[in-house]
Design brief:
The chain is α/β, with parallel strands linked by helices. Among the domains are: 72 residues, no CATH class; 235 residues, Aldolase class I (TIM Barrel, Alpha-Beta Barrel). The protein is 38% helix and 14% strand. It contains 17 helices and 18 strands. Helix 4 links the parallel strand 6 and strand 7. Helix 11 crosses helix 17. It is globular and about 75 Å long. It binds iron/sulfur cluster (SF4).
Length: 467
């Protein structure tokens, strides 16, 4: 019998053992003591084997199953089929936390020119896939509906296509509304917690236009087509119930709570956003616990904190999400790229923001000459957590990811001791929290976890134990 090496994390409820395939169990102190002195019993061996933590080397099926489970934990970035495009950097608002330092509404030279559009169309023509996702970012992309249409028309040949328009919803001219009406278009906007905090982050036209437009779109399409992301000031976040009420009043149930990103204008105006502290993490936990309570009080609804659900699914349903901000390995410039207003290609939107802030130029190429460059290759050498000395002994490594652009943004380097990074602290906290909840005996917690995992029924227990 081979017992797969496990990494251990001490939780308040016991010792969490996680194998390299991400299988886990919560062990009692008695089991830990037996394991440490080499006194594992036959019954322990049988239990470990039943839970997939031990395998008979002569059992070919089990050995293959283990290899498959290992491979399943690795994310696969294959063909380019996801483009984030910035047809214009101009914007009709001037938000204090703007990550890209947008250009003024009437400034010249911040929109795609004819050559850039032609190059983007050629990139789309050359894609070898039959599915495509394109996200229109800005600036405010709806200032150029003609460019949005031109890109969409170029995608007609794909059997599966999805377009996401990221907009501040300050105005919806008829031409833009007819684009929104397409079945393959989704709308992503910002709703910063409550209407008053939303207003506080913005300058320029009144927030009432945004509120009216969001209400209009939700009533026209239903909430499934629209997502709204709250960007919160960690030093002064709104009251939890007020955020939830604001979202539910618009019929929105997924709340992706993000602290202000340490990019663009935010670097100057929100300096505290470089690192999040215990106060923010405590606020995050209270938020998720309140969502659980409200799901229990009204079981017809499924409120969720989106990032919590993403992390949860990485534990229980590997491969079910394609969230490019949390994956491992996380190579850049392979399956998705960002195309800026001037045709420059960046690996991620955060990389675009860093260049715009003058911090570091992480562009990897351009639309005319491509991005198979030495710079991309060098960056990709740091794109996995697999061989990192801290990650390779961390219980959460099978579920965690790698974000080298985030490290560069915060610390100017990619080789900082992993456990001394905001990325690590954030994920260590979320995974500790998830496992505490997974081993809770509160039926309200079970109900929400089952909803977030889209399970057909509520299980009595989500995590195996060994006593
Ligand atoms: S980044 Fe931190 S939490 Fe994630 S695997 Fe590495 S050590 Fe663990």
């Amino acid at each position: 019998m081979i017992v797969h090496p496990a990494r251990v994390r001490a939780l308040s409820s016991g010792s969490l053992f996680v194998s390299d395939t991400g299988r886990f169990l919560l062990a009692s102190d008695a089991f830990v003591e037996r394991a440490v002195v080499g006194g594992i019993t036959e019954a322990d061996g049988a239990a470990l084997s039943a839970m997939g933590h031990a395998v008979d080397p002569d059992d070919e099926f089990c050995m293959h199953s283990h290899a498959y489970a290992l491979a399943e934990r690795l994310d696969h970035a294959n063909h380019l089929d996801y483009l984030i495009v910035v047809p214009t950097l101009r914007c009709n608002l001037n938000c204090s936390y703007c990550q890209v330092s947008r250009a003024g509404l009437n400034q010249q030279g911040f929109d795609w020119n004819d050559e850039t559009l032609a190059s983007v169309c050629k990139i789309i023509d050359d894609l070898g896939t039959d599915s495509i996702k394109i996200e229109f970012q800005g600036g405010e992309p709806t200032l150029r509906p003609d460019l949005i249409r031109a890109v969409m028309e170029r995608c007609e040949r794909f059997s599966h296509k999805q377009f996401v328009i990221c907009t501040n919803l300050q105005q919806i001219p008829d031409e833009v509304l007819s684009i929104f009406d397409r079945k393959d278009v989704y709308i992503s906007t910002s709703l910063d917690g409550t209407i008053s905090s939303h207003e506080a982050h913005r300058t320029g036209p009144a927030t009432s236009a945004f509120v009216d437009n969001l209400q209009f779109l939700v009533s026209r399409y239903g909430p499934g087509k629209i997502s709204a992301l709250p960007t919160l000031d960690p030093r002064n976040p709104p009251k939890i119930d007020e955020i939830i009420d604001t979202f539910t009043e618009f019929g929105l149930s997924s709340i992706f709570r993000r602290p202000i990103n340490f990019q663009g204008f935010a670097r100057k105006r929100h300096k505290a956003s470089q690192e999040q502290d215990q106060a923010w993490r405590g606020y995050y936990e209270r938020f998720v616990r309140r969502v659980i309570e409200r799901n229990w009080l009204d079981q017809s609804q499924c409120l969720e904190e989106t990032y919590f659900s993403i992390c949860l699914r990485r534990i229980f349903q590997p491969g079910s999400d394609r969230h490019v901000d949390l994956r491992n390995p996380n190579p850049i410039g392979v399956d998705y790229v960002v195309i800026d207003y001037d045709g420059t290609v960046f690996p991620t939107d955060e990389a675009r923001m860093l260049a715009r802030s003058g911090i570091i130029d992480l562009s990897i190429g351009d639309v005319a000459t491509g991005w198979d460059t030495e710079k991309r290759q060098i960056l990709n050498e740091a794109s996995t957590n697999q061989f990192d000395p801290s990650c390779s002994v961390c219980a959460y490594q099978p579920y965690c990811g790698r974000d080298l652009v985030d490290d560069l943004a915060r610390y100017g380097r990619v080789d900082r001791e992993r456990t001394d990074t905001e990325f690590c602290r954030r994920h260590m906290h979320i995974y500790d929290f998830i496992f505490e909840l997974a081993y809770s005996d509160d039926p309200a917690v079970h109900l929400s976890l089952a909803k977030w995992l889209r399970l057909p029924a509520v299980p009595n227990e989500l995590g195996p134990r060994l006593s």
